[in-house]
Amino acid sequence: MRTSSAVSSSVVIVAITVLMAACGDGGSGQTLPPPPPPTASPDVRADYLVGQMTLDEKIHMVHGGAALDWWAHTLPRGGGGWIQGNTRLNIPDLYFADGSAGVNWGVGQATALPSSIASAASWDLDLAYRYGKVIGTELSAYGINVNLGGNINNTGREPRDGRTFETKGEDPILAGKITAAHLKAIQDQYVMGGIKHFSLNDQETGRTTANVGIDDRSARESDLLAFEIGIKDSNVQSVMCSYNLTNSDWSCENSYLLNTVLKGDWAFPGFVMSDWDATHSTIKAAQNGLDLEQPENIYFDSNLKQAVQNGQVPQSRLDNMVHRILRAMFASGLFDHPQTIHAIDAAGDAAIAQEAEEQGAVLLKNNGLLPLDSATVSSIAVIGSHADIAVLSGGGSGQVQPVGGQAPIDVGVKPCPPCWSQVVWDPSSPLTAIQAKAPGAIVQYDDGTNAASAAALAAVSNVAIVFLSQWESEGMDVPTLNFTDVIHSSPIDQDALVSAVAAANTHTIVVMENNGPKVMPWLPNVSGVLEAWYPGQRGGEAIANILFGDVNPSGKLPLTFPASVNDLPRPTIAQPPDSTTPFPVDYTIDGFNVGYKWYEVNGLTPLFPFGYGLSYTTFAITNPQLSANTAGSSPSFQVSFDLQNMGARAGAEVAQVYLELPAGTGEAKRLVGWQKVWLTPNQQQNITIQINASDSSHPLSYWDTSAHAWLVPSGTFTVYLGNSSRNLITVGSFQIP
Ligand code: BGC
């Protein structure tokens, strides 16, 4: 009896569904008006849908779902967030997943690219586009249609930030343009891009309660400028607001940041989603600019519905939230280009991973030992950091599960759970790659756990290559800039290891696999230093290619390497008193002079300056010329020069243009343009770099708080050209009346 009634009621349900589908409305009882054609604008198409939606359907669009475990990535398709689609209105599901150096680990095995900071260090926008394309195509292959990448926080303010590897460094223009190239590529795959964490989320220590104090001009010219460029140059559709507070308001309910700056001044048409659990209220957050609560439904589900019904949040604001999300989906092609799940192009993408590392690794020191000559080197000691089988990667939501699975290394102390922040070694062997380069040499490995044994091996080898590694992750900062071992149960003193090896063999080279800037007490005693960052799953091959000269290094630092933590604007990282009380983090100390500008205005000499990086050849800049067009409301100038490769190897140089604004502005020199140029031996090329005041980077302007506008000041502008922020010639100057 029970069975037959169940059967008959399901027959009735099926019959009703078929009938409703025939009516064309899926269940509301009313026939839907015809939708606008696909050629209509995203705004028109979004308005149409908002016009058909019930209150419940609208509320459904503006929050995640608490029922599913996003933390363990058990959501559909393994991402970090999910909003089920609306079948009545043919609105597709939204699948959210991280991906700053490859698809997030929870989704599936993916190409582990070198870290984003390495992409920035290439200073190559075309390569950055291809880097982003790997992320976009692989997300799409897994059926993920919203990316939570685009971390553009300013790690120049806090180089000990555990997420430095996800970022693009300290300069707003370089970071903004590199991020925009990543995002354009992702969006070209019909995956909605995202940029985060808006804003001033520059330290992980106490990240959910840090209360950043900063003035408007400083924010506009530093952290916010990077976002402005990244958003405007890429047309990215989603912005993730951050955990921290700014000037005592949580980022996800900060009307100034969200309504005035982002949606007002920048006319951002997309939507703002909270970082995971960064929502703190219903009415205030909705009114102050948050459009989507993620990943839960604590504030923007029944609480928001009630607030709309009470009139505490106007219906028009809820409609605007939904409009922004739908508009972003149309603009990103999510309706018109649904994804088909398929295998990733592992081989093609691995080649790009290798190229990104080869172009992003930075040669910091070379006393002439590099490149190694396979014809003359007869024995090599490879030491430390599991270089026999792997290279290190960074942890947190930016973590990738590499193709082929992670290297089988049990490091003893695994901070897992939480598994979103685990130590993953990518399966790429520097030792094997080095052996392949020098088939006639004896290549031996020492794990570096005993400095005396490593030194003994170095003593009987022609060359010693010491691999240093520093694991870092989202959710942590490191207290010092020295290499510290936070993962092995018996921590290795890596500085002592290098010193012991260098004392045993003057031909010692250090390769660093790390998150961001480091100090190097052993620097005078080693022959060469290569900053490999977290080099990705083809890191071993890329490093060997550079060490043996098959690739001529051309990366340049996107971050200053300070000489000491004492030179930082905040030598000690501000600490939270407990897990709930907001605590001050003072960004007025460096203000708008962040990163290399801080070192310049304070007369501090860095260990390695922003923009610095060596090559196996040398380049000469001659015949620099400046021409400026200062008439009209949008001035511009051009720097022309001859760049010549003076050596016997092909290579690339990054020519960098810096501009000093009139003295009264208090601005330090700023990077305003660059070009990466590839030249064969002795080749000379005439280069012109054009700078327009109207560019999204506001290169000739300062932010005038009382005018609430970017203004080009009157006075003398001085133009510099060179290959680092500290190796510049004066090209000339021009006046703006
Ligand atoms: C991180 C975000 C990330 C989100 C989802 C948060 O903890 O701060 O960057 O997108 O988790 O994984």
Give the SSE map.
Blueprint: H1 2-23, H2 42-52, H3 55-61, E1 81-83, E2 94-97, H4 116-121, H5 125-141, E3 146-147, H6 172-187, E4 194-198, E5 210-213, H7 216-221, H8 223-234, E6 238-241, E7 245-246, E8 249-250, H9 255-265, E9 271-274, H10 283-287, H11 302-310, H12 315-331, H13 346-360, E10 362-366, E11 379-383, E12 391-392, E13 425-426, H14 430-437, E14 442-446, H15 451-459, E15 463-469, H16 494-504, E16 508-513, E17 528-531, H17 539-547, E18 583-586, H18 596-601, E19 619-629, E20 636-645, E21 651-660, E22 670-679, E23 684-692, E24 702-704, E25 709-711, E26 715-724, E27 727-736
Parallel strand pairs: 2-3, 4-6, 5-7, 5-18, 6-9, 11-14, 11-15, 15-16, 16-17
Antiparallel strand pairs: 1-2, 7-8, 10-17, 12-13, 19-20, 20-23, 21-22, 21-26, 24-25, 26-27
Helix pairs in contact: 2-12, 5-6, 5-13, 6-8, 13-17, 14-17, 15-16
Residues 80, 98, 148, 196, 275-276, 397 line the site of beta-D-glucopyranose (BGC).
Keywords, separated by commas or semicolons:
alpha/beta; 737 residues; disordered N terminus; 27 strands; single chain; six-stranded mixed sheet; binds beta-D-glucopyranose; 27% helix; four-stranded mixed sheet
